[in-house]
Amino acid sequence: MTTKNLEPFQTADEAWAALEEQQGMSDGELVDLWQHQLQTAEQLRHLGADDELIVAGLLHDLGDGRVAEAEHAPWAAQLVRPLFGERIAWVIGAHADAKRYLCTTDQGYWSTLSPISQQTMIQQGGLMSQEEVSAFAANPWAEDALLLRKCDDAGKNPMYEVTDIQFFRITLQHVATSRMLDKSRLNE
């Protein structure tokens, strides 16, 4: 694991550069973290997710290979929050808890996980308590986190390579620019 002292993103270019740094970086799955996050975002795109959720898919594993497994989701959420906002940050921060939620509430879900994902689920806290299940489900973005989680699970195909990479860079820039414009309107 290489620890990067990344600061919260100020620009979409900084976020993209952090994603590009994950080319060739492995968490033990069959694809590198760059391709995994692109595949996750592409799965979301094909399911008709909005641009914010696509960005969450694109950046959800920025902590992998940089910090301890149990901390990778909240760490990535802190990186994206100032630039991309609370929804994207919460969904990224909750994607490991979404796996725990699904393993707790769906008896068949565990068997759909890759061996690496099964192993990390234990490191991320294991099954949820009933209180944790209720708290997770009560969040207004819980369904977004569950959709990201399912696309995360599907985004590990070594036989598939995302080719329309420019689409995702443009989407990242669009969401960041829209958020900055919204912030400036609030300050007028």
UniProtKB/TrEMBL annotation:
GO molecular function: hydrolase activity
SUPFAM superfamilies tied to this protein: HD-domain/PDEase-like
InterPro entries: HD/PDEase_dom, HD_domain, OP_Dioxygenase
Domain HD: 34-100
Superkingdom, natural source: Bacteria
Keyword Hydrolase: yes
Keyword tags: Hydrolase
Protein's UniProt name: Metal dependent phosphohydrolase
Native species: Ktedonobacter racemifer DSM 44963
Lineage of origin: Bacteria, Bacillati, Chloroflexota, Ktedonobacteria, Ktedonobacterales
